[in-house]
TrEMBL record:
Family the entry assigns: Belongs to the MAL family.
Membrane topology classification: Multi-pass membrane protein
Every MARVEL domain range: 1-120
Protein name stated in the entry: Plasmolipin
GO cellular component: apical plasma membrane; myelin sheath
Subcellular locations according to the entry: Apical cell membrane; Myelin membrane
Primary gene name: Pllp
Sequence intervals crossing the membrane: 20-44, 56-81, 96-116
Complexes and interactors: Forms oligomers.
Keyword Transferase: no
């Protein structure tokens, strides 16, 4: 939802006049589409049918790449916001897009951390560790 807000806010401005916002649009739409694709895969439990693919590793790599892309998109978007814009509503939307890009970046960094823990198997709790210790 946050990624959708980023590209919707940028798309509602005259982003085509500034090359920096083209990068932000590319990153936000590309990552949003891939995120929706992974969501559908997990929602329909298709990862169980393709058991050969190491899904925790794939998800961790995707989240890491999305984090790096959103870091660049956030910095680009925030640096390109000009408070002296001749269209005040463009400034407000671009500033809001920068804020939401920051939130999306933080979300993908957190997802990368949790994906790494899932990939390494560090997500076990006390109950599962006791069962495997005594079994």
């Amino acid at each position: 939802v946050l990624g959708l807000l980023v590209w919707a806010l940028i798309a509602d401005t005259t982003y085509y006049l500034h090359a920096a916002y083209g990068w932000v649009m590319f990153v936000s739409i590309f990552v949003w589409i891939l995120t929706v694709l992974f969501f559908v895969i997990y929602l329909l439990q298709l990862q169980l049918k393709f058991y050969v693919i190491p899904w925790p590793l794939v998800l961790m790599i995707f989240n890491a790449i999305a984090s790096v892309l959103y870091v660049t998109a956030f910095v680009t978007c925030a640096a390109a916001v000009q408070p002296t814009s001749w269209r005040q509503w463009d400034y407000n939307r671009r500033a809001a897009a920068s804020f939401f890009a920051c939130l999306v970046m933080i979300t993908y960094v957190a997802s990368t951390f949790f994906s790494f823990r899932a990939w390494k198997g560090l997500g076990s709790n006390a109950a599962t560790s006791q069962v495997t210790d005594h079994a």
